[in-house]
């Protein structure tokens, strides 16, 4: 009998405590005796904490409506703390980056964010991929992260002035050994607004912001339209979430004061296109889904030649022994079909 089976045998059938509902993106949800809970969070909180015992487990299946991310989340109830805590699907950023490339944890957060977007509300052809580069002159080589951040904020301000509240997106900075970086952006237009940025306006704006020369004006920017959601997903995985091979900070970057590697553009609007559906499930359903998810995850790794038996054994044992949360990239409709079958 493996650890997953042992843990399942030790759990009693649990009554559903949280109604099936759709909730917005939030880092955490609390319920206290006197707390004022906004409607967007209310559905993901246990309605009557007085009926719960300290140490009780609430089993949740969280899925991104219209997206491709699901999470199984066993959550301990702690009435003595006067709230029931459910951590959001977006995770948190810890510390300040000290490496010239994105970390694996940060990459996972970025890809999970992509998986949470409600694609049914966004036209697959309304996404643009933008690249903003720097020149090779002395001025460009002298810029540090504070300058880069100022340039980025200036560019985003120009975008908002030109297009208003019709778009949102994400940016990623990628550093090079020679001491300069460049920005990759994914910009999504919504509400039927045509996804179009004039390439001459783009080049002129970025050149003015960075005080570039004529060569930079002609070759400092590029723009491409997404052909499909598959194309967008590939761009996120291979470009936005690319991990460089070098772990050590090159000498040319030591005085740059490296900051975070990616961030939001118009985050408030982006959050409106993320809709997390939370289903309370029994322990029996939880363990069935976990077995299916683990099998699915293992096959995906095998298909991509990423499966390592030793790593998988450690990962699975740790997950099952401690009833840890399990995130998986799976289409929303597929996850809901699985839930209806195993429930």
Brief synopsis:
The protein is α+β, with helices and mostly antiparallel strands and 343 residues long. It has helices spanning 3-9, 39-42, 104-116, 138-142, 145-163, 199-210, 214-219, 229-240, 267-271, 283-303, 309-322, 332-342; strands at 21-24, 28-29, 57-64, 70-76, 86-87, 127-132, 167-175, 181-189, 221-225, 262-265, 275-281, 326-328.
Low-confidence stretches: 9-49, 79-88, 90-95
**Strand arrangement, largest sheet?**
1-11-3-4-12
- What is the terminal separation in angstroms? 24 Å
Cα-atom radius of gyration: 23 Å
Task: Identify the overall geometry.
Answer: globular
Number of distinct helices: 12
Strand pairing plus helix content: what structural class? alpha+beta
As for the number of domains, it is 2
- How many β-strand stretches? 12
Largest sheet: 5 strands, antiparallel
% residues in beta strands: 15-25%
For the residues shown, what is the average pLDDT? 79
Helix content: 25-40%
User: Which series of helices and strands comes N to C?
Assistant: HEEHEEEHEHHEEHHEHEHEHHEH
Task: Supply the key terms.
343 residues, 2 domains, Alpha-Beta Plaits, alpha+beta, globular, five-stranded antiparallel β-sheet, 12 helices
Give an account of the 3D structure.
This protein has helices at residues 3-9, 39-42, 104-116, 138-142, 145-163, 199-210, 214-219, 229-240, 267-271, 283-303, 309-322, 332-342, and strands at residues 21-24, 28-29, 57-64, 70-76, 86-87, 127-132, 167-175, 181-189, 221-225, 262-265, 275-281, 326-328. With 343 residues, the chain is an alpha+beta fold. It has a five-stranded antiparallel β-sheet with strand order 1-11-3-4-12. The two termini are 24 Å apart.
């Amino acid at each position: 009998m493996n650890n997953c089976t042992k843990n399942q045998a030790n759990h009693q059938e649990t009554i559903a405590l949280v109604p099936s509902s759709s909730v917005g993106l939030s880092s955490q949800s609390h319920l206290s005796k006197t707390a004022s809970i906004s409607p967007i969070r209310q559905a993901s909180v246990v309605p009557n904490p007085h009926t719960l015992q300290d140490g009780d487990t609430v089993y949740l299946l969280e899925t991104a409506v219209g997206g491709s991310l699901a999470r199984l989340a066993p959550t301990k109830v702690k009435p003595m703390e006067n709230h029931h805590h459910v951590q959001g699907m977006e995770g948190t950023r810890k510390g300040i980056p000290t490496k010239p490339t994105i970390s694996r944890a940060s990459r996972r957060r970025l890809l999970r964010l992509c998986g949470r977007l409600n694609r049914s509300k966004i036209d697959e052809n309304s996404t643009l991929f933008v690249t903003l580069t720097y020149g090779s002159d002395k001025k460009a080589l002298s810029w540090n992260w504070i300058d880069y951040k100022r340039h980025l904020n200036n560019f985003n301000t120009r975008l908002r002035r030109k297009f208003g509240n019709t778009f949102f997106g994400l940016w990623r900075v990628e550093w090079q050994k020679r001491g300069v970086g460049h920005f990759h952006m994914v910009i999504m237009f919504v509400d039927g607004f045509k996804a179009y940025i004039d390439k001459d306006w783009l080049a002129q704006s970025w050149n003015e912001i960075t005080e570039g020369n004529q060569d930079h004006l002609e070759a400092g920017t590029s723009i491409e339209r997404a052909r499909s959601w598959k194309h967008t997903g590939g761009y996120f995985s291979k470009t936005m979430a690319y991990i460089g091979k070098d772990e050590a900070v090159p000498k040319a970057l030591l005085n740059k004061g490296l900051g975070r590697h990616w961030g939001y553009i118009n985050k408030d609007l982006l959050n409106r296109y993320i809709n997390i559906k939370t289903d309370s499930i029994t322990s029996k359903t939880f363990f069935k889904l976990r077995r299916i998810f683990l099998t699915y995850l293992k096959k995906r790794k095998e298909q991509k030649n990423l499966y390592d038996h030793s790593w998988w054994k450690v990962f699975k044992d740790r997950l099952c022994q401690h009833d840890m949360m399990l995130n998986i990239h799976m289409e929303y409709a597929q996850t809901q079909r699985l839930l209806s079958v195993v429930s």
